[in-house]
Amino acid sequence: MIFVLLLNIFITAFSIETKKFIKNFNVPICKNCVYFRPYKNDVKFYDLGKCTKFGKMDIISGIIEYNYAFNCRTSENLCGFNGTFFEERKHSNITLSILQSE
């Protein structure tokens, strides 16, 4: 009886189907948002990507300087950790290609 109990514990502890504990798994990803613009069309530097939802326009030139997506997600006054203003892209590959060609 004890052997069976220990065997079950061993199988459960070292099972291939162990549970995964991945942080932030259910939180929206900025690169999948319609407002995300990658850094210089380079997908390697997502942390330098900008959010076109938040920014500041120069009143003389009209040039808009967008906030970094990282700053938007770490500020609860902007998009915040949970991605309050997140809007998912419908066709991520097509939309990303259009954004990169601008």
Explained architecture:
- The structure is a single chain.
- With 102 residues, this protein is an alpha+beta fold.
- It has one domain.
- 27% of the residues lie in helices and 15% in strands.
- It contains three helices and three strands, in the order αβββαα.
- It has helices at residues 2-13, 69-74, 92-101; strands at residues 36-37, 50-57, 64-68.
- A three-stranded antiparallel sheet has the order 1-2-3.
- A hairpin with a 6-residue loop joins strand 2 (50-57) and strand 3 (64-68).
- The chain is elongated, with a radius of gyration of 21 Å.
- The mean pLDDT is 79.
List keywords for this structure.
102 residues; 3 helices; single chain; alpha+beta
List the helices and strands and how they pair.
Layout: H1 2-13, E1 36-37, E2 50-57, E3 64-68, H2 69-74, H3 92-101
Antiparallel strand pairs: 1-2, 2-3
